[in-house]
Amino acid sequence: MIRGLEHLSYEDRLRESGLFSLEKRRLQGDLIMAFQYLKGAYRRDGEGLFIRECNDKTRGNGFKLEKGRFRLDIRKIVFTMRVVIHWNRLPREAVDAPSLEVFKARLDGALSNLI
Known about the structure:
- There is one protein chain.
- It is built from six helices and two strands, in the order H-H-H-E-E-H-H-H.
- It is mainly alpha-helical.
- A two-stranded antiparallel sheet has the order 1-2.
- The chain is elongated and about 50 Å long.
- It starts with 9 loop residues before the first helix and ends with a helix.
């Protein structure tokens, strides 16, 4: 605990220390992992994990992902289901990043407006 922040609520402590909430930090980790899969860092493991949308007339980023269809509700919490919705909302600058470090920096800016 940081001195002087004991009396503040969770949200106020996050704001004062400049951190994201636990939900945003989990999403940030998921999006970073998805970026690595899509850029080929895990070729064998990530092959066929994501399906790229075939529509060339997409707004926003040009690297939209297709959401898979599952018959059971429990599968909605699977990694690919959690990531696709938020990945498609990312700006083009973040998705087209040349490296992981640049993606992380651009993702931090985009996360403040994402959720």
